Amino acid sequence: MHRERRQDGVRINQQRPNAVQQLLWMMLNDRWTIMNNSSSELDSKRPNKHKKVCSFLLWSGGTLVIIAVIVAATVAILYLNHYPLPFISRGEVSSSVVSTNPKESGPLVTVSRVADGEPISIFLDPNCPDFSEHFLRWEVLQSSLLRALTNYNADNWQDHGFVQKLEEELKVLLGHTHNLRLEADSLKRGQGVLDQRLDRLQSEQSRIVKVMSDNHSGMLKLVAGFSDSLLSLQRETDSLKSLKSELSKDSTLTAVRPRDCSDILKSGVSQDGIYSVFPTHDPNGFMVYCDMSTDGGGWTVIQRREDGSVNFFRGWEAYRDGFGTTTGEHWLGLQRIYSLTRSGGSELRIDMADFDNATAFAQYSAFSIGRDSVNPEEDGYPLTVDGYSGTAGDSLLKHSGMRFTTKDRDQDQSENNCAAYYQGAWWYRNCHTSNLNGQYLRGGHASYADGVEWSSWTGWQYSLRFTEMKIRPRPES
Ligand SMILES: [Ca+2]
C-alpha cells in the first residue's frame, strides 16, 4: 500500500509544478530544524548514539508517510473525482470536493458535495482564462487539502506536530492565494472599468459616425433638392420654349394672313382667283380677286367691267360698301379701297380692252384714297394719284385730289352732279377725263362721255369692253 502510493507520488511529483516541490522541500527543511532542536534537547537528557539513529529512522518513516498522504490526497482530488476519498467519507461532516472535468465540452471545474453528490458546475472558457477563478480553484484545492490533513488522525505525537505545521503553512499559502485572488479581482474590476470606457468610446464613435452619416444624408437631400429644382427649371424652360414656339407660329400665321394679293403671291400662290385678304386697318378681311399674272402679279382688283351684267349706276352706300360679283363685274367699295391703300405706297394699274381686242394699260406709281382724312367717308374718299406710265395714256391725273361723287352725293367741282350727268360715279372734278363706272354702252356710242370712257385712249364716245382697276404695294425702288 505504501509502495503504491509512493509510486503514484513519484508520478504526481513529476507532473506537479516546481513551486509545489519547493514548498514540500521547504516544509521538510523546517521539520529538520525542529527535529534537530528536539534532538538537542533529548541529547542533553539522554546522550545515546543508538537512540539518535532510531529517532532519525522514525522521523524519516513519518515524513514518508506524510508525503504519501499528501500525494494520495492530491491524486484523489485530481484524478479520482468520481470516487469519494475513504478518510473524508469517514468524517461526520460532509465537505466539498473540487475536481476537474475530464470531458472537453463540460465545465472545466466541478465542485461537488460529498453528502448529496450534487455537482455544482463552474464553466471556465479556456479561450478566455479568468485568473480569479483559477485562484479560487487553487484556494478551494488548498482548503480541501487542509481538511484532508485535519481529518487525518495522527497517532504519533511527532506526526501530529508535523501535520499541524503543514496546516499552518497551508493556511499561510491560502492567505497568499486569497490576496492574489483579491488582486486578480481588482484587476478584473479595472478591466471592467476599462471595458466600460471602451464601450463609451465606442458608443461615442458610433454617435459621431451617425452624426456624420446624418450630415452626409442631409447633404445628399440638399443636392437632391437642387437637382429637383434644376429639373423643374428645365421643364419650365422647355414649356416656355414650346409656348414661344406656339406664339411665333401664331405670329407667323398672322404674317401669313395676307393683307392683300401681293402677300398671297409672296406666300407662293400664283394662280388668279378669289382670296381672302386682311388689310391692317380691316382685320375682319374680305374677299378679293387677285391678278397673279399681269406684270408680275400680286394685284388686288378693285373694279372690273367686262359684260355690262352689273348695274354701276348706284348711290353712295353701294359705292362705299361695294357691289357686284368678285369673279365678274364689281366695285370693291370705297371703304375697302381706303383700307388697302391707307398706309400709302400703293400703285394702281388699269388694264383696258376694246371690242376690237385691243388692250392698253395705264399705271400710276402712287394711288390712295382718303389717306389724310380723319373720317374718310365724310371727307368723300379723296383721290391721290401720281406717276403715270403705260400705253393707254393718262386720263386720271386731273382727278387727283377730287372727292368721290355718286348720283346721290355731289362732291365735285361742277355746279351740277357729274355722276348723275354722266351716268356714273367717280372722283369728278368739273366732270371727267375718265369714267370707268359709266354705262356699259359696248363700244362707240352717240351720247357724250357717259359710257365706260378712257378719253386718252378711246375718247369720250367709246365705251370699253373691258376695264380692270388693280392695286398693289409699290415695289421698293
Ligand atoms: Ca356738283
TrEMBL record:
> Which UniProt keywords are given for this protein, alphabetically ordered?
Calcium, Chitin-binding, Disulfide bond, Glycoprotein, Membrane, Metal-binding, Signal-anchor, Transmembrane, Transmembrane helix
Residue ranges spanning the membrane: these are: 56-80
SUPFAM superfamilies according to UniProt: Fibrinogen C-terminal domain-like
Q: Give the record's GO CC terms.
A: extracellular space; membrane
Topology of this chain in the membrane: Single-pass type II membrane protein
Q: How does it assemble?
A: Homotetramer; disulfide-linked.
Matching Gene3D superfamilies: Gamma Fibrinogen, chain A, domain 1
Source domain of life: Eukaryota
Cellular localization per UniProt = Membrane
Q: Which GO terms describe its molecular function?
A: chitin binding; metal ion binding
| Native source species | Oreochromis aureus
All copies of domain Fibrinogen C-terminal, residue ranges: 252-475
Stored InterPro entries: Fibrinogen-like_C, Fibrinogen_a/b/g_C_1, Fibrinogen_a/b/g_C_dom, Fibrinogen_C-term_domain, Fibrinogen_CS
| SMART domains associated with the record | FBG (SM00186)
Record protein name field:
Fibrinogen C-terminal domain-containing protein
